[in-house]
Amino acid sequence: MAAVGEDVLAELLAAAKAKSGELPLKRLASQTLAAAFSSQYRATEAHLRALLVAASAELPAFPETFARVLRAKVPGFVASFASARTIALRLSCAVADAVLKAPDAPAAAWLGELLAAQSRLLEATLTDPERVSSLARKAVQKLLKTHEAELTPAYVAVITSAAPEEQHYQLWLALSESKALDTSTQEKLWTTFAFWAFENKTRTFAPLWKRDPRFAAMSYDQFDALVLPSMAKMLKKAPDGVLEVVGALVRAVPLDLGRYLVDVFQPVLLTKLRAQKNEVRALAVALGGALAHSFRQSEHMQQLVAAMAALLDGKHGILAQFYQREAAFAVLNDAADASATQLDASEVQEIAELAAKALLKAVGKEAHEQTRHLGLLALGKWLALTGTDELAADSVASLKTGLKGKAEAVVAGYLRTLAVLCQSRAAAAVPFADEVVAVISEANKKPNVVHLDGVLAVGVAGALASASSAMDSRMAQEGVAALLLSATSFVGSSVEALLSTVTSSSRENSAGPVLPEVTALTALPSALAWVLSSQQTEANEAYALLVELLCSACLEVRQSAERTVEAMYLSSLEHCAGLVLAFEKKLKTLAEKEAPAPPSGVLRRVLRVLVPAGVSGVDDVNTRVFAPALFLAHHPLLVEGKKPEAFGREWRQIRRHFLQPRATKTEDDEEEEPPSDEGLIDNFIEDHESVKTAIVELLANPTTGQLYSTSPRQRLAAQRTLATLLNFAGNGEGEDLALHDVIEELLTKRLDDEGVDTLSEEAVRVCQTPFDELYVAKKEGDEEEKDGSSSTRKKRGGRQGTEDEQWEQELREELERKKRAQQDGAVKSYTPEEKLLLAEQQALRQKVQETHRVVTTVLETLSMLAATRPDELHPALPYLLRSVRVLFTCPLFAREASDALLAMAKVICPELLRSHYQDVASALRVVLTLDQLSSEQAKAARLAEMQTLFLRLLAGFMEHVFGFQFESETDFDADAPSNLVPPPTLHLLFPVLRDLLRFAPDLRRWALPLFAVHARMIPEEEEEEIGDVAAQRLLRREMLELALALLAQQAAGDAVPITNADLAPGKLLSSLCMGPVLSANEWGPLLGDDGLLSEAAAARGECLDALLRVVEDEEGGEELRSAKPSPLLTSRLFCGRFDAEEKNRVLAKQVWEATGAAVTPLFAGPLLVLLN
């Protein structure tokens, strides 16, 4: 709700206070409840609750009015959406709480109306998601906890005093969860439930839970007295209508209902399992399964199994239809599950023999495939419960007969029985080894066909081999292990097809019986574990199969694979690296094919299983796994989000697996801050050189690096990984690795290695021509003739002649255009020489296309890091700019170059300057494209066109650096305090300042002070405050060149004289020479044509004066005085001693003496260069 709506409600509250009567109160209550329909934020709801509390406290009549208005609006809320109902319920709880907290709270009659309205709102949440229903019940429970004595009887009265047909399941559940009901009250509600569920003519399905808290305290006597009569009556009178609620009740009560099986439930089950309606049979099966899971005594289970066996044997009528037999099989299948979990193993053996005998007889005659599969599944479960490793002879004979069947579906069904049996009693399946091997051999004859029976047989063979050494040798000799390690066997293709079938089936029917494909896939991990346990050297195929099973859409398949991996890891982690790499290949395949991927939660679970917590204790494993785990934890198939907090959340979980458990903190450690997880991971990277190499290779290898991948998802994962590494411990190895080893050393140099600046103009024209078309260079004469004819036509003002002549001329031109269009559309034929030339041009185009792709991926990484880690990427700006400016030399990359500048401008520091990032990028783009203009006049004109942009940019930086905008150069004071721009950001600003000072004299009053204030080397003691000394040092030569250019301008009189001494080029030159001793590269401008060899005597004098100041300076000149002058400097100073100007000769002599220079045997070399 907007602030305007809140103001309206506040005004209504004020009006209700000022005016008497019921109308203002109704208006306030109605508007407040209406706001529940549009409320979207918690703050809005909190405001509404506060307003109602205030109204209830200050207006005594308001709660009653609110209750009546709510009662009238309840039908609208019931028909509305879930959030509106929940908010209205919470608002009503706020009013009730405010009234009951009042010191003189009256026993108001309207309170019952309010609570009844709450119950109706609660009941309407039955169809809402469970989360919404739970929130609604919690609102009532919170109110009930505060006022239990007053509200418990009131709420119970709402249920008991309502019309018999009116149901209050949710209110009853809320009261039961609060444990606020005594025994007598519970019995009343159980009686009411019996009416709702069984006697109500308008009854609906009872929304009961498994082990429902509403029945937690029910005893057998209470069940017999309050519920059983009504239930038994309706099961006899109209069983179809109450099967669903009876099944829900059986699951809800914590009682063993086996005592009622023979008299109450069995007649219904025997009848309805044979019903013609699918819904009735399904409800009967569900009731049978619920009864089986409620049994706690073996005799009850035996009665149920005996009844089903008799039903299958035809003692209650012939089961003529397959679906009738399928229903009986389903009940026996549920009974087997219940027996395995609910009863003691010794008590089940006799029951299992009875069930197995009945099932063997029934499935042997079953013709329907799905029904037979279900019966054989139940048979396998019961055989496992017989408690013996030697099956009865008749059972073995029957199973062998089925395994030798000709139909693959029949064989698969019997193998499914063995697969289920092998899960707990693999030794019992040893007699079937020959048949299992035969099925595998037959399946491998057609490896391109899907073999369900073959996969089942491989799973059984693996279980047999794991059970005994004899079977291990047998299966290895038969080549079963080789099949699992071969990419050409039937196993891989069959598993892929079965997984696809399971995925589609799980989407269509998640509540049906277990598919035979699921059984086959759950049996396969044990075989893979057996193969991997034998120290295989080439196990990539087995790793891939295990990863495929871990990524399955079926929960049972995933759990089976997870148990297998966890069991392998308990003995050794030798397969951890192989499995992680297989998972990486799986995600790469999904990302490159853009295929439907498993849910992200499933993939995150796979990664956590494959990288266990115990990996931290095995150095050989954790170093091999770290890099791929870091990459996978950031994969977009696993985590979503654009911010580091979102896409890094999975890594924050996984990284703990690489850390040793923290020791218990002692009293001596209280003052020490424990290292963070980022710091510990940083130390881990620093301690393992192989980890650094693996990360760099994974991300930025020129051929296989994921940052250059053709898949956007793979690139995004690598970019996220890089962003996370940039944020490690500030100055730790993780940040150093990402910033220097990857970004500065590989990414930026990759742009240089692509050779964009080496593309010729002809190569550019070739790439601008359509791909399959031959480029032919046009002759200059043709172009001039064409241009001349067009200009002549323009001068003549278009077509000439009479109207008919003009029409005829237009018609001819139209025909010519159509003819040219047809020629362009036709397939062009080339001579052999032209075809060779076209092939060369095609190769060039393909090479440039690949260069374009690489450049795009690098700049994509730059843009992503600029958005997520601007502060951490800031130090790399000098290196990025050096590589990106190369793109401006080729028109094919103009757009990419502009985008790169925009991304780099987003990371300038401090953060206050980032609001100017667009101006920085635009200004830098203008000055970097000036080299494409031929004359200085054209460059000056171009800058003049963009003067508004430069004024806006300079004004922003002036405000930041000096605090105000200068009116003239005289406003600059070198000694005044200022906020210096950090050196990496200065790299983006300096090219702009340099070209403005060279070609835009009108802007010198702002550009020159900005340059002057930064024209000094940062002392080491100020590095932490100002910025990176190394980054500034990269600009020193260019700053020296600019200062010398300003000197040349002043000496030649090409610019207005600089009157402010602090801005004098000579002083700037002296300041730049102070500090660290000049390198050979930095000496170049001073010793060149613009410095000591300048034609202008004033320029030479300023250079000598600057050198003298540096030499004479107590701090800055020490390095220059102590250093041995180079032969080139010696020769320049020697020449300066004979300068035409007296002043320059004196200065040169002073510098000569101060530096201790002397003529050396090498003096002739530099002088000979000057003569040339």
Task: Give structural notes.
There is one protein chain. This protein is 69% helix and 0% strand. It has 1172 residues and is mainly alpha-helical. Among the domains are: 1-178, Alpha Horseshoe (Serine Threonine Protein Phosphatase 5, Tetratricopeptide repeat), CATH 1.25.40; 594-661 and 678-750, no CATH class. It is extended, with a radius of gyration of 43 Å. The two termini are 84 Å apart. 43% of the residues are buried.
Describe this protein with a few key phrases:
59 helices; 1172 residues; single chain; mainly alpha; Serine Threonine Protein Phosphatase 5, Tetratricopeptide repeat; extended
Layout of helices and strands:
Elements: H1 3-18, H2 23-38, H3 42-58, H4 62-78, H5 82-101, H6 110-124, H7 130-146, H8 148-160, H9 169-177, H10 183-199, H11 220-237, H12 239-252, H13 261-272, H14 278-294, H15 298-312, H16 322-342, H17 345-364, H18 369-384, H19 393-403, H20 408-422, H21 433-443, H22 452-467, H23 469-477, H24 480-485, H25 490-508, H26 516-532, H27 540-550, H28 555-571, H29 576-593, H30 600-610, H31 619-632, H32 644-647, H33 649-654, H34 677-687, H35 689-700, H36 712-726, H37 733-753, H38 761-768, H39 780-795, H40 803-825, H41 832-868, H42 870-873, H43 877-884, H44 894-905, H45 917-928, H46 936-945, H47 947-962, H48 983-999, H49 1004-1014, H50 1023-1026, H51 1029-1033, H52 1036-1052, H53 1065-1073, H54 1080-1087, H55 1097-1112, H56 1118-1122, H57 1127-1136, H58 1142-1155, H59 1164-1171
